[in-house]
Amino acid sequence: MRISTGLRRKIWAAFILQIAAISCATVLGVYGASAVLKDVLIQRALTDEAAHYRERLARDPQAPPPDTYNMQGYLQRHGESENVLPENLRGLASGYYGLPAERGGSLVLVQEGEGGTLVLVFDAEQVNALAFFFGAVPLVLVLVVIYIIAWATYRISRRAVSPVIWLAGVVQHWDPKNPNLEALSPEQLPLDVEGEVLVLAQALHEFASRIDAFVQRERDFTRDASHELRSPLTVIRIACDVLCAEDDLPPYAKRQIKRILGSARDMEGLIESFLILAREGDADLPEEDFVINEVVADEVEKARPLLGDKPVELRIEEHAAFSLHGSPRVLRVILSNLIRNACAYTDRGSVVVQIHNDHVCVQDTGCGMTPDELERAFDPFFRGGLRKEGGQGVGLTIVRRLSARFGWPVTLESEAGQGTRALVRFPSAFAAGRAEAAAEV
Predict the structure, then answer these.
(1) CA distances (Å), 338 to each of 116, 177, 357, 419, in order?
(2) Which strand ranges, in their side-by-side order, compose the sheet holding 107-113?
(3) If pLDDT is split at 50, 70 and 90, which confidence band does 439 have?
(4) Could you tell me the pTM of the whole model?
């Protein structure tokens, strides 16, 4: 939607409606004036003329009927035939008439009294001429004045809102990830930008500058944190691997080293998740065609040490092979959290990762969750299941946020004491052969 065009159209529509309303009111007013002219004023004039003629007739029985430029009179004396009247006036009873066009279209007053029946006829052409000069001509003049004033007002209003339209156009074409601050710098503003619009433009410029600084700090933090946080964890993991290789360590020390190693791996996954979520949009996340099956196999192998000595079988069931175009790092974070959760909450039985045509399912035989716990499973820092210890309670929250951002919906099904089933759908999945062919090229 173009805001500038919409604002102009609204202003133009408002003036069009205003002009139409005034024009209609003017036309109706003139039409009413014409009706009053015909049906009231002329009737009054004919009535007064008839009274005046009766007075003349009383003084002079032979006084001729009125005969002027606009009016013609006829007198049918008592005992005379109607033949003294024109044919279109015969048969009319006393009263005031507006004859139809086929009978002349004149205004007629028929009045009976002493001396006979008086018929006064006002010429229709004169009536129409009067209606035109006292109705149509003023109407045209009024409408012309209204249109000129409305057009001038529209031009003034358009100039008044032009800075708003310009400002809306600038903001509309801003790139949220890289706003053009120069467009709103004081030296770039048009000369007609003043008042409230100038204040708004300056506020937007300052706001965009602060946002740009925030984004730059976020990028710097993400870049630096990605290196600085991973480096000590890598040292911890390597040191633990070296210590575990020592044969003379007591079993208790080895168990503690494995716990440190597991926590370091958990922290690496958590840091990776937070760094992805902290990025602006999907910036710095390279996308490519990759095979889901390979990512699943890698994450399963990484999670296998979490089971330790527990009698739990961790396996993959590949019912299909498909590929995605996206960020494999994001998918690894999602699958890692789901598989690690399944391993952590399963003490015996199995954790099965199933690959189908367009989705991956992680199913375990662990402690499961009650319906109330299942509703809160994606809440931050909530840990469901019969076991509450361990973990940070943010794994599923991270999964939900990443799946919503990248369009990979995640659903959970669980029953207390029976296990949990997590399903990740991939609407944009395609045959695995396409990714393999692209890799070969």
Answers:
(1) 114, 32, 19, 13
(2) 71-76, 116-122, 107-113, 95-98
(3) very low
(4) 0.50
